[in-house]
Design brief:
482 residues; Amidase signature (AS) enzymes; 13% strand; 11-stranded mixed β-sheet; 11 strands; alpha/beta
Length: 482
């Protein structure tokens, strides 16, 4: 059980006038001041604007108004979500100091619900990475062990919640960038169904893969944030109609009668034995709570990593073409336009971003498009079909979130493929466009958190959250929650 206050209780006490939003904020800013120098969860702490927002919430309460379901709740925002007038850098030199002229839809919705934004969190540059070691502004450290990575790319958002800097935060998930750091930092992380949460104002990496979602201490807090930020946005052409499913009202429904499948292909090679053991324990807990639990094969997930590292870099190559020293980003002047663009992108992008742009440009080039990108799209379709077959027999699926617990800094940076393997369990859901979330379920042999992943079909958030709530209760009952 987290030692920090949850968002639901904070909001309830602020709305009742029992605590002030200013008092809550100062408590969290105090924690930030104490531990942020060693953690580096933030690229920018917006303490001044946060104090003004908290004062406005308090004034609304004093006037007898309801500020909203997240009244006075501090929230941290990943630094690839646009915030009006506040630097949004994607942890890249090429966007250093850029101030967007508008707020992302999810940022607007948090503000409308009474939340208090405390800062912009660190990430792997342009969300490309699994350890937050690729940030141009230095790495974020895992609050449980500062010699270990927090995961990535949303490492700052995960660490901010784990360290008690904010009860909830927002991240983005293109191949596991919410769920994997949530697992490594011992917090809840949710990737909703593609299209359920607006991407307007999220700086694009892979447009068919990116999804915004929350980190939280509790499943209930994550559910509330999803309901606040989710729902149709006419400004996002990929946004689904209707509101986010009312998951909060189903958290106490239990799992009796639910059918749960353990994905065989995600429990084998590459998964540490202590992590696999925690997944088995989670499965046993669900069975004990009345669910039917069986092994299930989803064969195409074994191709997930290969397909992802063709589709995602291709989309990144296209999306990042706009950073040319003319339309967006900082410029390095040179004698000709071509030389200026080359110098700008050479200085502005880090090694991992350059690696993915080059790979994406190659697979989209004439003579290679069908062989690589076209084939990856066929594999993506096959993966969806295999998931659809599994979901005919099961309501949710179960797997590890990350194949290991948090690893040491520098342990995997020398070999990109070793780093990419961290997302082997999370990538398939992004390719399919389905829902998934990570729930803390005890610790590994090293005492560091382990996350169990609950996967669900598109729009399967209700059974997914029901399952997560039972796992959370079981973890607390055995005293193994991170």
């Amino acid at each position: 059980m987290s030692p920090f206050s949850d968002a639901l209780s904070i909001a309830a006490s602020v709305r009742r006038g029992e605590r002030s939003a200013t008092e809550v904020l100062e408590e969290h800013l105090g924690r930030i001041a104490e531990r942020e120098p060693e953690i580096h969860a933030f690229n920018l702490v917006t303490d001044g604007p946060a104090r003004a927002t908290a004062a406005a919430v308090d004034a609304a309460v004093a006037a007898g108004e309801d500020p909203g379901p997240l009244a006075g709740v501090p929230v941290a925002i990943k630094d690839n979500l646009c915030t009006r007038g506040v630097p949004t850098t994607c942890s890249s030199r090429i966007l250093e100091g850029w101030r967007p002229p508008y707020d992302a839809t999810v940022v607007q919705r948090l503000a409308a619900a009474g939340a208090v934004a405390v800062g912009k969190t660190n990430l792997d540059e342009f969300a490309m990475g699994s350890s937050t070691e690729n940030s141009a502004f230095g790495p974020t450290r895992n609050p449980h062990d500062t010699s270990r990575v927090p995961g990535g790319s949303s490492g700052g958002s995960a660490a901010a919640v784990a360290a008690g800097f904010a009860p909830v935060s927002l991240g983005s998930d293109t191949g596991g960038s919410i769920r994997q750091p949530a697992a490594l930092c011992g917090v809840v992380g949710v990737k909703p169904t593609y299209g359920l949460v607006s991407r307007l104002g999220l700086v694009a990496f892979g447009s068919s893969l990116d999804q915004v979602g929350p980190f939280a201490h509790t499943v209930a807090d994550a559910a509330l944030v999803c309901e606040v930020v989710g729902g149709h946005d006419p400004g996002d052409s990929t946004s689904l109609p209707g509101a986010f499913p009312s998951v909060s009202e189903h958290l106490s429904d239990g799992v009796a009668g639910l059918r749960v499948g353990i994905v065989t292909e995600l429990m084998g090679e590459g998964v540490a034995p202590d992590v696999a053991a925690r997944v088995r324990a989670a499965a046993d807990a669900l069975a004990g709570a009345g669910a039917t639990v069986e092994e299930v094969s989803v064969p195409a997930v074994t191709f997930g990593l290969s397909a992802y590292y063709l589709v995602a870099p291709a989309e990144a190559s296209s999306n990042l073409a706009r950073y040319d020293g003319v339309r967006f980003g900082n410029r390095v002047d040179a004698a000709t336009t071509g030389e200026m663009m080359t110098a700008t992108r050479t200085a502005g992008f880090g090694d991992e971003v350059k690696r993915r742009i080059m790979l994406g440009t190659f697979v989209l080039s004439a003579g290679y498009y069908d062989a690589f990108y076209g084939t990856a799209l066929k594999v993506r379709t096959l993966m969806r079909q295999d998931f659809d077959t599994a979901y005919e027999s099961y309501d949710v699926l179960l797997s590890p979130t990350s194949p290991t617990t948090a690893f040491a800094f520098g342990a995997k940076t020398a070999d990109p493929m070793t780093m990419y393997l961290n997302d082997i369990c999370t990538i398939p859901t992004n390719l399919a466009g389905h829902a998934a979330m990570s729930v803390p379920f005890g610790t590994g042999d090293d005492g560091l958190p382990v996350g169990v992943q609950v996967l669900a079909p598109a729009l399967g958030e209700v059974p997914m959250f029901r399952t997560a709530a039972v796992l959370e209760a079981a973890a607390h009952a055995e005293g193994g929650a991170a």
